[in-house]
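Internal ticket - ligand job 182, FE2/S2 (inorganic) cluster:
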Amino acid sequence: MSEERSFERTALDEILSHYEGQPGALIPVLQQAQDAYGYLPRPVIAAIAERLRLPAARIYGVATFYAQFHLKPRGRHIVRVCLGTACHVRGGERIAEQLAESLGVAVGGTTEDRLFTLEKVACLGACGLAPAMVVDGTTYGRLTPKAALNVIERYRREPAEVATQGGQAQDIGPSSQRGRSA
Ligand code: FES
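stdout (structure tokens):
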């Protein structure tokens, strides 16, 4: 709460100075504010409402309508477990439960240390790798609950090293692990 009150205004002032007086500014302002702060704290929304001369209720309406906006702090790593049909029938639900238990958060929650946010998605577009999850930009496929926990542990231990793998799909199923040295 105190963090929300003491948000650093410079970034928001810069964003608003580009858009003030422009019609249709709200969505890009919210996107850039979220990029700057990681989420949309209440004082940021209040400041946007004041500068764009919009009711705060309207801004909350937009922010809650679009899934891309977040009103609560998010973790450094975003873990998205797929619960689409292909992943569901291959154990996606168990993976989500294991991760939730291990991280100590419900799906949709963020760990107290703000390292991880756990989310579910309907399909990652990687059904051939089911069950799958994405951590930041990297897809991990043919998971078991244990393999999913191992992935999370790697991010916990070696965040910088794992981050360099972003964007690559990784099949970490049993067949692919045979050829691994690590
Ligand atoms: S259902 Fe999980 S990737 Fe498509």
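Auto-summary: The two ends are 42 Å apart (CA to CA). Strands lie at 77-82, 116-121, 133-135, 138-141, 169-171.
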